[in-house]
């Protein structure tokens, strides 16, 4: 029997792949849009939530990404960014997430006159406020930010430098996101070289809207230790379970796959969770982790993703424990903190297993 949604809420979870600009509360968007005069497709929060889901549910990543115009429009001042970051953490904590990495692209948040540094500092402050608010309501959560470069923009090292500048100040990693087809990871090879020279962590969106060549570049030309989605690595797995060289390398190296099942249904990777490559990749012992990608656009939560996977593949508490443990192992945290996270996952799962 599937692990219930209620129990999935209670288990300790780790959100490695969750976009800050893809997780706003609809009510917050309505309120901020009214303040700044941004015209929304719907002004009732519930209707707006439904609109995001429907508009993102097109089968195309490019159309999915168009919906972000309405969230980015209300995240252009320090106050707005701080509020969105605070609510991000509060919502994650309320869903039983114990560690979250919020990713977003500061370059998309400068229209109100903020500098890149001011924007990152505002998110840092909001994350800290959210952690404090969660603690006040009895929930312990840690939160960090992943700073993202948009891959269709001119390649630059500027955002990588920004990430490194904040390495001891809430930024735990770097990423590239946006349309994948036509914008291979190698375009940003200079940024990744900069990060490697500075011993800094990064993940790369790859293997979502494009296949194995994108994953190969992310891993071998750029050096990613985690893959955003990476789901199309399944194309390097034969029907009998034998692995091609790339899939074999990714599995050997324990490169984490930040899998986001519901998001993939919307961008056309498969029609049902049961058809999602997650099941096969987990069975073959890849380092599978579970994330939401964009809670707003997919109308989901991490506990819901756990529950859907458990329903589709019959996962037990032990399986879910493995997915949380995998995510803890691949968190962009220093080793002592990562160990603390792994222990917390084990202890809390053991307590729930009774
Ligand atoms: O799943 C995704 N693939 C590629 N890009 C994405 C995905 N989800 C969100 N993004 C983009 C849209 C956001 O504005 C940007 C930064 O969070 O990242
Ligand atoms: Zn993403």
From TrEMBL:
SUPFAM superfamilies assigned: Metallo-dependent hydrolases
Feature type site, description Important for catalytic activity: 229
Keywords in alphabetical order: Hydrolase, Metal-binding, Nucleotide metabolism, Zinc
HAMAP family: A_deaminase
Species of origin: Propionicimonas paludicola
Domain Adenosine deaminase stretches: 12-347
Active-site residues, Swiss-Prot/TrEMBL: 208
Gene this protein is translated from: add
Family to which the UniProt record says this protein belongs: Belongs to the metallo-dependent hydrolases superfamily. Adenosine and AMP deaminases family. Adenosine deaminase subfamily.
Transmembrane segments: none
Residues annotated to bind Zn(2+): 17, 19, 205, 293
Binding-site residues for substrate, renumbered to this chain: 19, 21, 178
Cofactor binding: number and manner: Binds 1 zinc ion per subunit.
PANTHER family xref list: ADENOSINE DEAMINASE (PTHR11409:SF43)
InterPro entries the record matches: A_deaminase, A_deaminase_dom, Ado/ade_deaminase, Metal_Hydrolase
Entry EC number(s): 3.5.4.4
Protein's name according to its UniProt entry: Adenosine deaminase
Cofactor(s) recorded in Swiss-Prot or TrEMBL: Zn(2+)
MF terms (GO), sorted A to Z: 2'-deoxyadenosine deaminase activity; adenosine deaminase activity; zinc ion binding
Described function: Catalyzes the hydrolytic deamination of adenosine and 2-deoxyadenosine.
Gene Ontology process terms (BP): adenosine catabolic process; hypoxanthine salvage; inosine biosynthetic process; nucleotide metabolic process; purine ribonucleoside monophosphate biosynthetic process
Top-level taxonomic group: Bacteria
Catalytic activity as recorded in UniProt: adenosine + H2O + H(+) = inosine + NH4(+); 2'-deoxyadenosine + H2O + H(+) = 2'-deoxyinosine + NH4(+)
Enzyme class: hydrolase
Pfam family, one: A_deaminase
